[in-house]
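Example (one chain per record):
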Amino acid sequence: MTPDQFLTFAQVLPEPMLLVTIAGEILAVNQAAAKLFGKTSKALVGQFLSEFFTDSPEKVINYLRVCAQSRQLILGAFTIHQAEGEGIACRSQGAVIQPRSPENPAINLLRLEKRTSNEFVVLNQKIHALSKEIQQRQRIQVELAESNETLRHTLIKLQNALEAVQREKMSGLGQLVAGIAHEINNPISFIHGNLIHAGEYCDDLLKLIHLYQQEYPHPSQEIQDEIATLDLEFLQLVKEQV
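Predicted structure:
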């Protein structure tokens, strides 16, 4: 729909109606809209909505973007500022009539309705409060995501630290076991290395005792008692088996 086509049917309508781009540029207005703004149509065309609203430009642009992306009527609430007075509270119904193309921007049709009742003021306040609540929830979600990421990094660091401690413990245990094995192997090796010599010494002593028995076949009673106590025959038998 071109601005001229819009004016052809909109001029006879009692409701304030505008054609605006997604950026908020006013392309055409009917007589009712010009009266609502307190301007002439010529003074409005080519200007931007944000120049006539007390609301933030971001709010106006966001609303127009939603209108351009939806197939349904989008409700909004704005206040037209005046040179004198508190401004005119309006309810807006917006819909896209020309989707965006590579050659042209999207064009929205807005229908404004002047509202002066307290009910509309309350509704506008609720919309504002709801908008702030949504922003707060979005901020909380971002903070929660950041906290989760920080917690994840902390858990990874903790896990790495625990693994490092475990490796250090295993390394220390290995060194301890190696030290104990070394302390055990030394005396065992010493004993094992001297078993042959000890056996030879035992053989020599047993030979000497055998010679004594040949030279002195009748030892004293004290020697006989000591032989019985030592169980000399058992010692000789064990040595022969080894």
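Caption: Strands lie at 17-21, 26-29, 74-80, 88-98, 107-114.
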